[in-house]
Design a protein that fits this description.
Length: 247
């Protein structure tokens, strides 16, 4: 069997009496499109935070491509190819869309030299290419703060894609976006992931989006993975229907 792209072994974390990671054993293969579902507070974001080095688990390990990354800093993990986006996009508000991508890319190269202009620090073709992939080519000169939420989400993802990740973890890419816009947003994201051959995990509350775009679903209940399988299997699971979907 080939090495999993991402693997966790017996992750444990509690905030006081609240258990947010309850012995999580998890494995993800290259090419998967995993949806993570679960009610508010189930521990979805915490799981992402642990995998990407933002929070240390109290016990357990995280492996990326077979290497133990449990105690690495977020930046070191991103450099290895595990990159995430945030539930609320983390943009550089006073900068243009194009500069946000340049700044994200420059971070990977070890930061900006004091005397290097931003537009020279990062290859222009690479910047334009990610802008095109997420459909923001026409808005490159606008301030990121001026974008509507759906495009802010796409910019956040473009800032992740410029880092050429192997695994992209998206924390609620469609939150804050109208139901009508969600499918367009997901189609754009999925096409970009396909083009760059990026494996992906995305947290999502909308069951329609999950069934349509995920190849696999993992359901979180109170810090543990209560069900893990195909969308059809997991969305039909009685415990998931009762505690996650809320029927
Ligand atoms: N740094 C922290 N200190 C204390 N408690 C925290 C911290 N981070 C998260 N929590 C708590 O841990 C639990 C899990 O939070 P988490 O953000 O992982 O949930 P989630 O599944 O992502 O929920 P949502 O769907 O609302 O985003 C919640 O009860 C939250 O209040
Ligand atoms: Mg969350």
């Amino acid at each position: 069997m080939s090495t999993p792209l991402l693997q966790t072994k017996d992750l444990q974390l509690a905030f006081g009496a609240v258990v947010v990671a309850d012995h999580i054993d998890f494995s993800l293969a290259e090419g998967e499109r995993l949806a993570v579902i679960g009610q508010n507070g189930a521990g979805k974001t915490t799981f992402i935070n642990i995998c990407t080095g933002l929070i240390r688990p109290q016990a357990g390990k995280v492996y990326f491509e077979g290497h133990d990354v449990t105690n690495l800093a977020p930046r070191a993990i991103a450099l290895r190819g595990m990159v995430r986006s945030f539930q609320l996009p983390q943009l550089f508000a006073e900068h243009t869309v194009r500069d946000c991508i340049r700044i994200a890319a420059a971070g990977k190269q070890g930061g900006l030299g004091l005397w290097t202009p931003l537009e020279k620090a990062v290859p222009a073709e690479a910047v334009e290419h990610v802008l095109e992939m997420v459909g923001l080519a026409a808005r490159g000169d606008e301030l990121s703060a001026a974008l509507p939420e759906g495009q802010r989400k796409l910019l956040d993802i473009a800032m992740a894609l410029i880092l050429k990740p192997r695994l992209l973890i998206l924390d609620e890419p469609t939150s804050g976006v109208s139901t009508d816009e969600k499918h367009g947003l997901m189609k754009t994201i999925m096409a970009a992931l396909d083009e760059q051959k990026v494996t992906a995990i995305f947290v999502e509350h909308d069951v329609d989006i999950v069934s349509q775009y995920a190849t696999r679903v993992a359901a979180w209940i109170a810090g543990r993975i209560a069900a893990d399988g195909t969308p059809a299997q997991v969305l039909a699971d009685p415990e998931v229907r009762k505690n996650v979907i809320g029927e």
